[in-house]
Amino acid sequence: METKLFSPWTLKGVTLKNRIVMSPMCMYSSYDRDGKLQPFHFAHYISRAQGQAGLIMVEASAVSPEGRISDQDLGIWSDEHIEGFASLNEQIQAYGTKTAIQLAHAGRKAELEGDILAPSSIPFDEQSKTPVQMSVDQIKDTVQAFQHAAVRAKKAGFDIIEIHGAHGYLINEFLSPLANQRTDEYGGSPENRYRFLREVIDAVNEVWEGPLFVRVSASDYSTKGLDIADYIGIAAWLKEQGVDLIDVSSGAVVPADMKIFPGYQVPFAEKIKEGAGIQTAAVGLITSGIQAEEILQNQRADLIFIGREFLRDPYFPKTAAKQLRTSIEAPRQYDRAW
């Protein structure tokens, strides 16, 4: 059976052998609290490359120490992080799998000692620390931190960069009126709330020529927040800036009730793809090859991001191929078993 899930996908000279992407998932396992990779990370990611993922996206990696979600997050704020990522990339790419990194800043959702930063001094919830409202100088410094992180990602040999603009972290906080109540050029109108992300993308584009993704939360699940119509407009701006693909998630900028069911975020990816004319990735409770194939065949998205199913099954592509009654090439060492 010819499948779309196992067809190649090419962008800016980077070709994925299939449309299956290991979604970025924080592992909170940088045990020395220095942002560096541990042996766990190598086993974790390389096993999924052996399992024949088309693309592996390394978890959210902080562009500054204060931008970590926890003190055990990975980081890319220092040149000392380059060597570990370069070694990881070399080993993943040896299996024909491409690599990506998600550049991130946690904003007010950072659970760290000391001050945490946000567009406005509004805590995430009653149990959370109140953040410090960022000065314009701090905003500019953070934009530069994203650019410097992109330079390090390039030196480390990543094929693709994703900017994390979802899940209530710093960029998402700037975008949403629920978290951004500034009255300067970074707040108020939709254009002003987009300004921080615009500057981050411009800064990254100055130093990065490869495919560029942005992850968004396409609904705040709040009557006073952003919804899919707002994000279709944001997606059009992203496309104008040269972003190649939007990785479409949802929620988490404020506490909210979310109805979660298989494929619950796929309609967001579909609407952004149609409304903004940009390629999208679908993510969220996609657990089988048949489900993934339907999304692609009906042109609801262009890539499939697999999260928790990859935690349960490092060889998810092999499993999906069996479900679709097709076969994929095994790593040479495993050929007699596959």
Could you walk me through the main structural features you see in this protein, from its secondary elements to its overall organization?
The chain is α/β, with parallel strands linked by helices and 338 residues long. 33% of the residues lie in helices and 17% in strands. The strands form 3 sheets. It has an 8-stranded parallel β-barrel, surrounded by 6 helices. Strand 1 and strand 2 form a beta hairpin. Helix 3 packs parallel to helix 5. The protein is globular, with a radius of gyration of 19 Å. It starts with 8 loop residues before the first strand and ends in a 15-residue tail after the last helix. The model has no long low-confidence stretch (mean pLDDT 97).
**Widest sheet: strand ordering:** 3-4-6-9-10-11-12-13
Order of helices and strands: EEEHEEHEEEHEHHEHEHEHEHH
- Low-pLDDT parts are none
Derived from helix and strand composition plus strand pairing, the structural class reads alpha/beta
Largest sheet properties: 8 strands, parallel, barrel
- Assign an overall shape: globular
The count of helical stretches stands at 10
Question: Using only CA atoms, what is the Rg?
Answer: 19 Å
| Ends apart, CA distance between termini | 18 Å
Arithmetic mean of pLDDT:
97
Number of strands: 13
Helical fraction: 25-40%
Portion in beta strands:
15-25%
Subunit structure: Homotetramer.
Binding site for substrate: 28, 164-167
Function: Catalyzes the reduction of the double bond of an array of alpha,beta-unsaturated aldehydes and ketones. It also reduces the nitro group of nitroester and nitroaromatic compounds. It could have a role in detoxification processes.
GO biological process, one term: response to toxic substance
